[in-house]
Design brief:
The chain is mainly α. The chain has helices at about 5-25, 35-40, 45-70, 75-95, 100-125, 130-160, 165-170, 170-185, 200-220, 225-250, 265-295, 300-325, 330-345, 355-385, 390-415, 420-440, 445-455.
């Protein structure tokens, strides 16, 4: 094996590790919600903020991070992001109260925002051949999916054995390994001086997402008719409208709106949003369900999610072959239908529902999601020019993490007073969102994505 191939393989490990720890920290907290609440004397809304502070800053800063990587080089920005993520993880692990934990989670989200688009830019740079890139994207997504779906199990084991603080401290050795591998094996990307950081757009993005998360979370405590909640929703809408207006006028916008004229790009971004609302929101509510309704321990809750974890990697690795045979559009549409069916089968869930019936449907749900995500990601990358890979990846992940913020805020609020009732209402919403994802796949063009998927077979 040549030195170049060895370097590219280790670069793939480094970028997958970066994306993996980011996704791990999206879901690892869910099973530790109850111990964190008890130890830090926090409310349900406080626990929602621990989850949402991370995904909110992740979503808000990811576009600027992608632009920064395009401008000064993805490698150096990726290393800086790993360092920030690791330092913030130490802060989370040592946090003395719920306020400081939420604050460090927000900083951790900024580090995550840097890692994701820069990891994909480094990956695209290391694997210029479409076929090799499609396979690499599948492995990169597999690492992230394992981190995401394995988060509850990892969180349960660490919390049960060492305490909830170790779900954050475990990131430190992973971060050091990622930094070392990146410095040693990854090549720096070319720089694009026209990709400046869009400060007005960034401020408006933070305001829009922060206000939206606050309104959603506090709606569960105060009621969605409360003046504070309604005012937050109006202010979030105004900030979003201002963001769109600013982006239209700037010569180098944070979010180039012209990219959405490409049907595949627009469809993939929208699918990422709706799928994440459903999945991340349900993970949060299901964790509450297992611990408060079925009275599972933290470890048992993690183990309850474990079978679903086992199918994700297989699904990720099968996605490319399925898309090559049936077409990306059909694979995404079919995955959406399977998700809807598995969610519908979970609707009868209650206090006495056998665990075996629940876990089968969770496995089917994760199987469908594991097929959908790589296909969606490769479709979006194939529809964008390589010089804009950073902002393209950032756009997709902004959409996905915005969905995470909305899912945890809304679904968590629905379950605040009645977990079983909230779970069922969340499932109904999720079924509708899965069907919407299927419909959204219809305008996607096969050409760009399927060339990569077919070459990967």
């Amino acid at each position: 094996m040549t030195d170049d191939r060895i370097a590219r393989r280790w670069a793939l490990v480094a970028t997958s590790l970066g994306f993996g720890v980011v996704q791990l920290d999206v879901s690892v907290v869910n099973v530790a919600v109850q111990p964190i609440r008890a130890d830090l004397h926090a409310s349900v809304s406080g626990a929602q903020w621990v989850v949402s502070a991370y995904t909110m800053t992740f979503a808000a800063f990811i576009l600027s991070a992608g632009a920064l990587g395009d401008r000064i080089g993805a490698k150096r920005v990726f290393v800086a992001g790993f360092a920030l993520f690791s330092l913030a993880s130490i802060g989370c692990g040592l946090a003395p109260g719920i306020g400081s934990l939420i604050g460090f989670r927000a900083v951790q989200g900024i580090g995550a925002a840097v890692l994701v688009p820069c990891s994909l830019s480094l990956l695209s740079h290391a694997f210029p051949d479409p076929g090799e890139r499609a396979r690499a994207v599948g492995l990169w997504a597999a690492g992230a999916s394992v981190g995401l779906s394995g988060g509850p199990l990892v969180g349960g084991v660490l919390t049960d054995a060492f305490g909830w603080r170790w779900i954050f401290l475990i990131n430190v050795p992973l971060g050091l390994a990622g930094i070392a591998l990146t410095i040693r094996y990854a090549s720096e990307t070319s720089r694009s001086r026209d990709r400046a950081v869009d400060l007005p757009g960034q401020i408006l993005a933070v305001l829009a997402l922060g206000l939206l998360a606050a309104a959603g979370i506090e709606g569960g405590r105060l009621g969605f008719g409360d003046p504070f909640v309604l005012g937050g929703l109006v202010a979030a809408s105004a900030a979003l409208a201002g963001f769109v207006a600013v982006e239209r006028r700037r010569t180098a916008p944070m979010l180039p709106l012209d990219m959405f004229r490409q049907p595949t790009f627009a469809a993939a971004s929208a699918i990422g949003l709706v799928v994440n609302i459903a999945f991340y929101g349900l993970i949060f509510v299901l964790s509450l369900y297992f611990q408060t309704v079925r009275h599972y321990s933290v470890l048992a809750t993690g183990l309850a999610f474990a079978p679903a974890t086992a199918v994700v990697l297989l699904a990720n690795l099968s996605s490319g072959a399925l898309a090559a045979r049936f077409g990306t559009r059909r694979v995404i549409a079919g995955s959406g239908l399977v998700m809807a069916a598995s969610l519908a089968a979970l609707l009868p869930a209650g206090r006495e529902t056998p665990y075996a019936g629940l876990v089968v449907q969770l496995m089917v749900l994760c199987l469908a999601l594991g097929v959908l995500v790589p296909a969606m990601t490769s479709a979006l990358l194939g529809s964008a020019d390589r010089s804009r890979s950073g902002v393209a990846a950032g756009t997709l992940n902004t959409a996905r993490q915005t969905g995470s913020v909305l899912g945890v805020a809304v679904f968590g609020s629905l379950a605040a007073a009645n977990v079983v009732g909230g779970l069922r209402r969340s499932l109904v919403i999720s079924i509708a969102l899965a069907l919407i994802a299927t419909v959204l796949s219809r305008p996607m063009r096969e050409r760009a994505a399927d060339r990569e998927m077919a070459a990967a077979r």
